[in-house]
Amino acid sequence: MDTKTTLPVLETSPIFAVLTAEERLILQHSATMQTYGKHQVIYKPGQQSSKVFFLLKGIVKIAIHAEKKDIIKYVVRGGCLFGESYLTGDTLRRDFAYAMDDQVEVLELDSNAVVNAMKGNFAFAQSLLHFLGDRLRYTETQLEKVVLKDSKSRIMEFLHQMGLEQGRRIGFETLVKHNMTHQDIADLTGTSRQMVTAVLNQLKRSNVLYFNRKKILFRDLNSLPIAV
Known about the structure:
Layout: H1 3-12, H2 21-29, E1 32-36, E2 41-43, E3 51-57, E4 59-66, E5 69-77, E6 81-82, E7 96-99, E8 104-110, H3 111-120, H4 122-148, H5 151-166, E9 168-170, E10 173-177, H6 182-189, H7 193-205, E11 209-211, E12 215-218
Antiparallel strand pairs: 1-8, 2-7, 3-6, 3-8, 4-5, 4-7, 9-10, 10-12, 11-12
């Protein structure tokens, strides 16, 4: 991959910014950039965990297959790592990674090169540990919600979090552009597609939000009824 493209990415990312210029150059030499189309599989269970992925553009979902459907573990957005299982001792993939956009750009780093950088730079190892810790806490939080909260509450909280993290303010309204289906939201919240559709339609009738296949417009994000 072209150094002019790779090095700025490694320099500006908080995870890689702690590396020295020489360490970043070593990672750069092991890196390739790949482009994936919508629904294209980036990796799947049973494959070698020889790459660590850094998402440059688009959205990727990480999922497992269960009972003839996808269970989404989490969604990855630009500027985040995924496929880091080799760093935690797994040499084979246990899940799938799918592109959710028409043109997903991914920086693929050699897993061994990343591990060697961790061995030589404690700050980098600590940076990755913080990242993995955040992902673990997210997973634990999602599990707690499934156990402790009903379906409607989980969907409401998901929509509110979506508005906070991805929304763009337009006056008093908040616009979220997305590529998730109702089934995707159901898989992320541990609910059913029918329940997601029912909740969205109820909120639309109440003029809390407007939605179509590509966007959700919250009239007032703070008015979204969520459990405290």
